[in-house]
Amino acid sequence: VQLQASGGGLVQPGGSLRLSCVASGIAGNFNYMGWFRQGSGKQRELVAGISSGGSTDYADSVKGRFTISRNNAKKLVHLQMNNLKADDTDIYYCKYISSDSVTYWGQGTLVTVSS
């Protein structure tokens, strides 16, 4: 399984970005996908996750601003990030958990929120 993340960049406070993560090499069901972020010296933390059935969970800090969605046919997950704040600056990683509970990570995409 390989995960390819994209969509990071530089945006001003209050702006929006959409991250995408496409999975390849998956046979069978397209299971749990999540977005995590990790800054220098910090632990990797959950931003948003979505189950195969579409159930979602979010970090408290992004509720109401970020939306995670998935396209099962394309094995694709998006993270729509609105009203971005400086504290959202980080490297964002997508994560996939297979049906046999193996975890895979994408390569990370940098989001910088700055004026």
Protein model, in words:
The protein has 115 residues and is mainly beta. It is built from no helices and eleven strands. The strands form two sheets. Strands 2, 4, 5, 6, 9, 10 and 11 form a seven-stranded mixed sheet that branches. The protein has a four-stranded antiparallel sheet with strand order 1-3-8-7, with no helix packed on it. It is globular, with a radius of gyration of 13 Å. The termini are far apart.
* Total beta-strand segments: 11
Q: What structural category do the secondary elements indicate?
A: mainly beta
- Give the low-pLDDT segments: none
Count up the helices.
Answer: 0
- Biggest sheet record: 7 strands, mixed
The mean pLDDT is: 94
